[in-house]
Amino acid sequence: MDKTTTTQLQAGTASQRVRTALVIGGGIAGPVVATALQRVGIRATVCEAYAGTADGIGGGMGFAPNGLEALDAVGIGDAVRAVSTPMEGMVIESWNGKHLGEFGNLPGVPAQRFVQRSDLYRVLNDAAEAAGVTTLTGRRLVDAVDDGTQVTARFEDGSTATADLLIGADGIHSTVRRLIDPSAPDAEYAGTHSFGGWVEDSGLPDTGGKMYMSFGKRAFLGWQVFEDGRCLWFVNLPSTTPVTVAEQRAKGAEFWLRTMVELFREDANPAVRLLERTDPGELMFAGSMEFMPSVPTWSRGRMVLVGDAVHAPSSSSGQGASLAIESAVQLARCLRDLPVDQALATYEQLRRPRVERIMKATARTNARKAAGPVGRVVRDALLPLMFKLMKPEKSAWQYVHPIDFAAPVA
Questions:
Q1: How many domains does the chain have?
Q2: Comparing C-alpha atoms, which of 50, 46, 52 is closest to residue 20?
Q3: Nearest to 141 by CA among 181, 182, 183, 169
Q4: pLDDT by residue for the chain (410 residues), tens digit each?
């Protein structure tokens, strides 16, 4: 090969490198992937559908150590540690108060942490801003045109934006997923819909950093009491049909609080006490629990999916945010080191096996939450045995997943 041909090939490869990116969605994956892209020299702009960011929205959540490890790779981990607290484990009970099992943090694995979702949003968006990311609000994507060298996004307000790559971080009901593949699957209903709330003065003892979970007769309750007496709770209500947040709100907080009190009336857990002390104005409506089935097409041309848009385990996994962050970091690495077509293919090869394995494990948890009368008896009988036979180290692969951000991607 002569010198001229070699130079032409190198120039062609360079022309396929991504220099600018539009990130659709400003939740969790969006600010992280934008920050990571800025760190590798790709100018990123986040386009958020709503008039403001998600700062100040949402309740508490568990945050897995692998998510923090991924944030460490791009310099954000300590900021999240500063607004979160370690969780010491989980305790599982039956409707009558029977202890079914307990598991703590794995030996040698950092503790899972508890964080207010609003604090997490704020920290991630602050990190993106500090990295030089531009965030545009009120930009709801309706269409995108890929001409082979760039992608032009068109928004509901009539504005447009163009970049080398469009990244769909727009959640489980992703518009970008439909643009990439009109036949792509939609989110599936996990069999329950959810509510949450805070009780300022629960009158309950501190749970010592542990989250308690009760498989009630007719619904599922989770709660954690903090040193100051405040209690965070959430409820999953089994239902044969999905319910949207708008439908929940239409019936009103008082209706749902009364309904939940009656559903838990026979149970030995503190649900009734917590529900009766919850301010209706502070009830959090979460709608249906959903998950993404396997998505056949992760990218097309110069459009690609990340986070819940392509792999959303239900909230039972405790891994949704962490998996989204891992994928955001890995996508940036691939785009740094490879031409765009190779980068997107390699990104999918790195991520698909791991995320689909976790999603399959979560499906079993959802089935236990929505168990009927017979299933409930079988579940409560088998869970103690399962905990005795369980080898916690076998699940360590979920929580230990280091990413060497500096290492080149082959």
A1: 2
A2: 46
A3: 169
A4: 444 333 333 333 445 889 999 999 999 999 999 999 999 999 999 999 998 765 545 567 789 999 999 999 999 999 999 999 888 888 999 998 988 888 777 777 888 888 888 899 999 999 999 999 999 999 999 999 999 999 999 999 999 999 999 999 999 999 999 999 999 999 999 889 999 999 999 999 999 999 999 999 999 999 999 999 999 999 999 999 999 999 999 999 999 999 999 999 999 999 999 999 999 999 999 999 888 899 999 999 999 999 999 998 866 667 889 999 999 999 999 999 999 999 999 999 999 999 999 888 776 554 544 455 545 554 555 555 555 555 556 677 888 899 999 999 98
CB atoms within 10 A of CB 392: 13
Single-letter code of the amino acid located at 388: K
Q: Where does 29-140 show beta strands of DSSP type E?
A: 43-47, 60-63, 84-86, 89-94, 99-104, 113-116, 134-136
Instruction: Please report where in the chains the tokens 């049909």 appear, as a residue.
Output: 241
What single-letter DSSP state applies at residue 280?
G
What is the C-alpha radius of gyration for the chain, rounded to an integer number of angstroms? 22
Q: Which residues pair with 94 in a beta bridge?
A: 215
Say if residue 123 is in the same domain as residue 50. yes
Query: What pTM was computed for the model?
Result: 0.86
Range of the domain at 309: 18-82+116-186+295-362
Q: Say if residue 145 is in the same domain as residue 284.
A: no
Which of 259, 290, 321 corresponds to the end of one domain? 290
Q: What is the CATH number of the domain that holds 135?
A: 3.50.50.60
* Domain co-membership, 182 together with 250: no
The residues pairing with 134 across neighbouring beta strands, listed in sequence order, are: 45
Do 155 and 195 fall within a single domain? no
Single out the residue of 254, 317, 253, 239 nearest to residue 285, CA to CA: 253
